[in-house]
Amino acid sequence: MFNKKNKHININIGTVIFGALFLYLVITVIIYLTADHISSYQVTSGPLSKNETYTALAMRSEEVVNATTGGYVSYFLADSSKVAKNGTICGISDTQNLLENKTLTSSDLAELRSIVSRYSKSFDGNDFNSVYDLKYSLDGAVLNTGDSSTIAGTMCTADSDGIVAYSCDGYEYLTPEELTADNFRTKSYKKNKLRTNDQISAGDPLYRLIKSETWSIVIPVTDKQTVRLASHDRIKVKFLKDGHSETGQLNLFVAGDQRYVRITFTSGMLRYCNERFLDVELVTNTKSGLKIPVSSIVTKEFYTVPVSLKTTSGENGEVGFLQEIIDEDGKITTSFIETTLYAEDAGDGSTEAVYYVDKDVFHDGDVLVQPDSNTRFTIGATATLDGVYCINKGYAVFRKISIIDQNEEYCIVDSGTTFGISQYDYIVRNGNSVKEEDILY
Fold first, then answer.
1. Shared domain check, 82 and 229
2. CA nearest 154: which of 224, 72, 216, 218?
3. Is there a single domain that holds both residue 228 and residue 344?
4. Does 352 reside within a domain?
5. Phi-psi category of 92—alpha, beta or left, where left has phi over 0 and alpha has psi -120 to 50?
6. Could you tell me the residue range of the domain that residue 327 belongs to?
7. Taking 70 as the threshold, does the pLDDT of residue 135 lie above it?
8. What's the predicted TM-score (pTM) here?
C-alpha cells in the first residue's frame, strides 16, 4: 500500500494582489489607447487675431534753425519745451557763460530756489537728462530777471510759436512724395544732438522748431495690407513705446513703386517729437468677444414652443411645460415636464416668441397646454441653433452662440448671449465628437 500525502498549495496573498493590480493597469491602458479622446478648450476673451505691428516714419512741420554768428551757445529752454513767437531760445556769446555778469536780487534768488525745490520733489534718478533740463530752466529764469543790459551776446528768438527740440537728422524737410526705401533703413539712421559746450560757427544748426501740433506717420505696406486698410477712413494707432493710442485720418498713396499708408494726427506730437521711427500697432481688429475654435461649433435641431406655454413647478421653480396625457380610459390629464431652455426667439411682431427645447424631451404630435387656459399647441415645428458643447460639469451640455466674426481657425462670439457661454468655460474642441449629455469625465 502506498500512503498518499495531501499536497498543500501555498498561495502568497501579496502575489495575488500584485497580479490583480497589474491586470487592472493593463486593461486601463488598453481602454485608454483604444478610446476616443475628447480635447477641451478654455474660452478666452479678446479679438479674433492680433493686430499687425509696423515701423513707422514720423513726419512733422519742422525746420532746423542755424546760427547767424559764431561763439558759445547758452540754452534757456529745456528740450521739447513750448516757445511763444519771439520767445528767447538761446544766446551766443564769446564766453561760455553768457550770464556771468548778471546781477540777481533777493527776489530773483527766491524764484530760483523755488524752481530747484519743485525739481527736487519730482527728481528721478533713472532720468539723468532731467538735470540738464533744470540747468536750462534756471538759465531761462536768470535771463528774464533784473537788468538784461549787462548781457553781451546775440539772443536767438523763435520766428513763430512751436516746440523746441535739440536734435536733427536730415528728415525735417522730407515730403511723402519723396520717400524711398532708403528712408526706412533704421540701421543706417543717424540723429545729431545739437546741444553742445563747444564753440560753434555761423551756419551751424542751433535747434529744431516744430511749428504745428498736426503730424503724421508713414508706413510702407504690401498690396494685401493695402486692401485690408482701404476700408478705413480713420484708424486707431497704438504706440508700442509707451502704450499710448491716438486715432488719426488714414490715406493711402504711392511713391515710386511702393505703396504707403499715411496717418495724420492732431494731438500727441509732443510725446514723440524726438522720435523719427516709431513701432506702432494698427488697431484694425476692433471686434472683440469670446474666442473659440471653429471646430467646436455644432448645429443642432430643436423643437420651437411658444413662450406663453412656459410654466414652473416645485419649490425651486423648475421650468417646463404642461403636456396633455390621455390614459387607457380616454381620460385627459396634464403632466408637468421639466425642460431645459436652450434659446429664446423674441419674434418680429408677425411671428410669436418661442423657446428652443431639446427634441429628446417631446415627440412630434405631443400636445402642450397653456396654464389656466384652453390653448393647446401641437409639437412639430423645428429650428436649428449654432452652439458648442460646454463640459464644465463633466458632461456635454449644448450652449447657444452668436457669431460676430471668424476666420479659418477661430471665431468671435457674443459674450452676452442668453443661455450661452462665458469666459473661462470649458468646451469640446471638436464638437462633432460628442453628443448631448455624454459623460466625459
1. yes
2. 72
3. no
4. yes
5. beta
6. 293-433
7. no
8. 0.62
Distance (Å, whole) CA 122 – CA 19: 76
Tell me which H or E stretch contains 72: strand 72-75
Same domain for 199 and 73: yes
The sign one gets for the Cα dihedral 66, 67, 70, 76 is negative
Identity of the amino acid at 262: R
Q: What is the CATH number of the domain that holds 178?
A: 2.40.50.100
Q: Quote the cell numbers at residue 74.
A: 547758452
Residue 160 DSSP class: S
- Alpha-carbon dihedral angle through residues 435, 437, 440, 441, given to the nearest 10 degrees: 180
pLDDT tens track for 99-117: 555 656 666 666 667 767 6
DSSP 8-class letter at 373: S
3-state SS assignment for residue 91: strand
Banded model confidence at residue 130, pLDDT cuts 50, 70, 90: low
Please tell me whether residue 103 adopts helix, strand or coil conformation: coil
Please give the angle made by the CA atoms of 175, 178 and 181, to the nearest 5 degrees: 120
Q: Are residues 244 and 184 in the same domain?
A: yes
Higher pLDDT, 373 or 115: 373
Question: Measured at the alpha carbon of residue 71, what is the angle toward residues 70 and 76, in degrees to the nearest 5?
Answer: 110
Query: What percentage of the chain has pLDDT greater than the value 90?
Result: 52
- Count Cα atoms within 13 angstroms, Cβ side, for 423: 8
Kind and range of the H or E run holding 191: none
How far is the C-alpha of 380 from the C-alpha of 359, rounded, in Å?
10
Residues 279 and 297 in one domain: no
| Cell, residue 429 | 474642441
- Least confident stretch, 35-39, 365-369, 431-435: 35-39
Question: Which of 136-145, 245-254, 357-366, 423-432 is the least confident region?
Answer: 136-145
Residue 401 has a CB neighbour count (10 Å cut-off) of 24
Q: How far is CA 331 from the centre of its chain?
A: 64
- What's the mean pLDDT when you consider all of the chain? 85
Residue 384's beta-bridge partner residues?
301
Could you tell me the CA-to-CA distances from 113 to 106, 138, 141, 338, 352 in Å, in that order?
A: 10, 9, 11, 81, 79
Is there a contact between 294 and 41 (Cβ–Cβ < 8 Å)? no
How many C-beta atoms surround the C-beta of residue 366 within 10 A? 17
